[in-house]
Amino acid sequence: MASNTKTNTYQLHLKGFVGGYDFDADYVDYVLSKHKDTEVNVLIDSLGGQSSTALSIFSAFKLHGNVNVHFVGMNASAATIASLGAKHITMDSSAMYLVHKCSIGFFEWGQLNSDGLQALIANIEHQKADLDKLDANIAQMYATRCKKEPEALLALMKEGGWLTAKEALEWGFVDELTDYADESAPVLTDTMACAMSAAGIPIPNMPTMHLTAQEQSAFAKFLGALGQLFSNQKIQSTNNSTQTPMKKIFKSICAILTCEHLMSNEGKITLSDAQMEDIESAISADKQTISDLNAQITTLKSEKQSLTDSNTQLQAEVATLKQKPGDTTAHVVNDKHTDQPAEKSEAEQYFESRANAQSLFDSLP
């Protein structure tokens, strides 16, 4: 065990959720690039997080080739994976260490018919196969560090129990234990215990304490992220739909967007701002056209009603004229030709007007 005098200065402090702002692969790459030819000391205190980020940090440590990791507090899952790329790993004698099988968040709700159930089963089987591969890969990484068979590490991951610093050393996860005076033993809080339970992490048997309201608020940011521990996938939700993108043809929409089809993924179609503007313009133009046509129809209906009324009035006048006695002609007819046309009689004028009105009425739609 190392002495209680700390001589290292840490260039990297990785705490909290693996994949969060304070345990980020890009930040690790940046710091390592600033110390390409020098030793880099890293302090880790984390319950885990995204396996994808952990694997990236593992590779960065390994490529640098001169990284030392020191564990304090309670460290689990992805945090332990990230450390495997270090040249030398030390651990505070009061710290805790956990490895377990990978997991993903999964929620299912609603009703499914036989096709939906079959799709759900196929999706779950695919996810299980991916998790089995990831577990086997990580077990091999642990085995390489511990110089043991992968099957032994996979069995330990399946058990998923907390290891003391001494047990972690015996397994070979760490190379050395320390007992620095300024590194206190980890304390389990109520909020921490709830977060572990929600993430499926076993709760160790150790002293507990209560957080203040301010401390609980600060730690709450960690809870949501911890729920997807070891997950490099999005939470899967199913509601009688498959995960395979499908081509959907909506003739009117596709005509507006001048495309052959639209892609549907998980029952949703994503459109760009430009496409939405094209649809909005087309709908507005159609609305204006409909409004103009309605106005024309209203005008024609009014004209048709007016002509109908005129026709009714003319028919009444014809009936009245038919009941009157015929006119007598008492004047001498002038058979001399004149330049002026002969004046039409009242009956001729009436029948000419009636014929014109009937022709106009018949021409209406």
TrEMBL record:
GO terms for biological process: protein quality control for misfolded or incompletely synthesized proteins. The keyword Transmembrane helix does not apply. Residues 323-350 are annotated as: Disordered. Keywords: Hydrolase, Protease, Serine protease. GO terms for cellular component: endopeptidase Clp complex. GO terms for molecular function: ATP-dependent peptidase activity; ATPase binding; serine-type endopeptidase activity. Residues 333-347 have a biased composition (Basic and acidic residues). It comes from the Bacteria. It holds the Pfam family CLP_protease. This is ATP-dependent protease ClpP, protease subunit.
